[in-house]
Amino acid sequence: MTMFGSQWLANAGATYEIEQSIRFNYVDDPSLTIDYGSAGNRRTYTYSVWLKRSNFGSFNMGLFGSGVNQDNRLYLRVNTAVQFVDVTGGAVPFNVQTNAVLRDPSSWYHVVLAVDTTDSTASNRVKIYINGTLQTSLASTSYPTENLETRINSTDDHYISLINNAGGSSEYDGYMAEINFIDGTQAAATAFGEINAATGQWVPIEFEGTYGSNGFYLKGQDSSALGDDSSGNGNDWTTSNLAANDQMSDSPTNNWCVLNSINLGTSETLANGNLEVANSASAWRSFSGTHGVSSGKWYWEATQTGTVGAGNSALIGIAEYQEADFARLAVVTKIGPAAGGYAFENWTGDKRDPAETSSSYGTAPTSGQIVGVALDLDNAKIWFSVNNTWQASGDPAGGTDEAFASLPAVEWCPAGSLYNATQTYNFGQNAFAYTPPTGFSALNNANTPDPAIADPSAYFQTTLYEGDGSTQSIDQDGNSTFSPNFVWIKNRDATDAHALFDTVRGATEVLSTNSLAAEATNADTLTAFESDGFALGDDVIVNTNAESYVAWQWNEGATPGFDIVSYSGTGANRTVAHNLGVKPGMFIIKQRGAADTNWGVYHSAVGATKSLFLQSAGAAFDSAEYFNDTEPTSSVFTLGTNAQGNANGGTYIAYVFAPVEGFSAFGSYEGNTNVNGPMTNLGFRPAWLLIKNADATGSWLLFDTARDTYNAVHKLLFGQLANVEDTSTAYLDIVSNGFKIRSTGNATNNAVTYVYAAFAENPFKTANAR
After folding, report:
1. Average per-residue pLDDT in the chain?
2. What is the count of structural domains for the chain?
3. Which terminus of the chain, N or C, has less C-beta within 10 A?
4. 0.85 exceeded by the pTM?
């Protein structure tokens, strides 16, 4: 067995490293327990834990608690929301629960429970923090009575994973790390974490306070005794149904690839920290890993357990990351045609390409034999091995005799398909069975390249503000600040028009996406672009007293992939230069000086043969007059003869966007009409998301994480309408590596194609779960 050294755990730039976590596999009934000999402070205490969740369902998901039976217990749990609830004699004396739901399996959350029942203010008696933010939007606000002595810190048995000694469906499923309990102090989240100055992300720090008599610190440092207390108090916990291999190197400071539990077909199930996948159906189902990569050399292993044969088979390989949307399909073919995948088939030993062309390749593995995958994206090649024998005399270290070469230059992720079979995966968070080829790395955040844009707030921000009916400056509140080149403002409380401004046309020059009108000069709107925001006059569309506004702001440049282009029309087919140096993913055009002119939209997922109108809910339509059926290039975009984008002598403004890995993406997804909606991998956690039904009538939907700070996302504005903000539907979850549709209906999830544009809050390498 090969174990990697500490360099595999390093997370460049972090000042505090967490080297391991404890894996809890729900079906094993895992738990940690302790029976204190004497009670501690039952009124004042703090519990802090980092979580990487695996599966979501009707589990109680106990995090910490104490009790004797179902009717007498006090526990902190996470089902979808985080809840701290007391049950005494079957009644519920208090219950505090967040509206925020935690449904992201790809990265880590930090949860802090801080209790002080001696506080005279009820809402101060129980505080719940998620990723450093005090939760004030609560589904339940039934607080403990003043000076109540709770069951926590009593002499009753205490549990982690279970919520009481009755067991049942209470066990946690996933990973826990850095578990701290402070006896006698109500601490804030800042005792355990801080904002990283370089990324704006919440990260762990070492707790440096006093633990108190019953306090403990569990970090799983000893694989043979995962419940050992590292606080110095000796408050060791007893493990149940936890083994040495449940000590994992997956941690809040080094997030590892696992299989994505929100991107599965209907009959698949995951277990063992989302490293085991099973499909009981006699039909192909597919799945993908959480991490995408576009460069570097990577190695992982997969093992099929049970019968291997024609009716019990598996594909092991890769899929295009942004195309690996398996949640939308009840039945898929295989990862090749479903997501451009390349794979090795266990049953035959054949290799398969995206067209499902099968060719003889090597020896078919038997049950329990290990298939190794070596992916070299620097040279666009992939190899497969069986029990450390590289098939067809392949040599990944030497770069020869590969299974496939000339892989497309896209982002790839581990992926596979199963037909009535079970597989286990290892991306390196446990010891590999075999030494990877020289130069190949395990798939974790520490090994993935640093993103080109470490802090997206330097190039895009959403700012919320309240109107004052006078004049005011609106300052950005992100981790970084910049002087915006493009500002899009919408009143959330009134049917005022959208108001768009840019530095090319100048301050006070207004365009509205919900209108065909020409540009208007309004001296009382946006009056100046400032170093960290913008200044406003008192016009109602930007500054009505006591009304709420949102402002989306972009910084222009090749680095963030954004160019503002002003040009004059010719009336003849032509090209217009841009400065991005790569092909645009989307551009928006508006004639400035003429009324009744459309907002023309090119989107790469629709193509240059079709156009969309931003001021219209209409579907994409086919017309060569708009873009002359010619795709944009790294230096120009092409226009046809239509006056909407190219009238002779007309003046135009174009907002041109290109995809930047880890910062922006422009693509499409297919709806599945199911509340278990499509999963779209972006490689970042989006801060802003635009969605449009491309096949039929449907609004331009505008979401952001400033208005919806936690899931589910339901605060919606419409790009083509002046409507007030709508909050009637929970449309989707924004997660650390993309977004997951959680609704049905024409808006986001009919049996049609939807296009999207997204800009990052954090690249996946540094993003916490949300």
Report:
1. 94
2. 5
3. N
4. yes
